[in-house]
Specification:
It is a single chain. The chain has a single domain, classed as Alpha-Beta Complex (Nucleoside Triphosphate Pyrophosphohydrolase), CATH 3.90.79.10. The two termini are 28 Å apart. Helix content is 16%, strand content 44%. With 165 residues, the protein is of the alpha+beta class. The relative contact order is 0.27.
Length: 165
């Protein structure tokens, strides 16, 4: 009998909180605390990208406010950052953030937590107002996304692959 073992997709990212080890978990549940939500928003075969001040082009998302759910956080962040409304929201997995690799970690977030990752369809594109972190929004092809994203890596690629399934 053959056993199938899938390689773990992981990497090092440089977030505002410093260096962090990230790991892709293509599951529907996590035992770690959820501190944020990000995702891939599709419109006419293209993916939404927000240009975030001080960071550059990225997929939309952010941290949970108070007791809001990860799904509510994602919808709110996309509305704030891109002036876009969503439908067909689907959780595709989690990105684990492990700050134990960062000797300068300030403890603002749990030492280990996850960001929920969603896939959604855009149902309305409203007039863009730069009122939060984003300075602009655009829709790019899935082939362009890795080339323009401010810090593309294997974990994001695996999440994009899951979003396209």
């Amino acid at each position: 009998m053959a056993l199938y073992c899938r390689s773990m997709i992981e990497g090092i990212a440089h977030w505002p909180s410093g260096k962090v080890r990230i790991v892709w978990h293509g599951s529907q549940e996590s035992e770690l605390p959820v501190t944020g939500a990000h995702g891939f928003c599709f419109c006419n075969g293209r993916v939404l990208v927000c240009d975030v001040s001080g960071r550059g082009p990225t997929i939309p998302g952010g941290h949970l406010d108070g007791s809001e759910s990860a799904a509510d956080c994602f919808v709110r962040e996309v509305s704030e950052e891109a002036c876009v409304d969503l439908m067909n929201l689907r959780l595709i997995g989690f990105v684990e953030a492990d700050h134990r690799v960062n000797s300068d970690f300030d403890g603002q977030y749990p030492l280990r937590s996850v960001q929920a990752i969603y896939r959604a369809d855009v149902c309305a594109v409203r007039e863009f107002y730069s009122q939060h972190e984003s300075t602009s929004r655009r829709f790019v092809t899935t082939e362009e996304l890795p080339l323009i994203h401010h810090e593309w890596n294997a974990v994001l690629q695996e999440a994009l692959n899951a979003a396209q399934r």
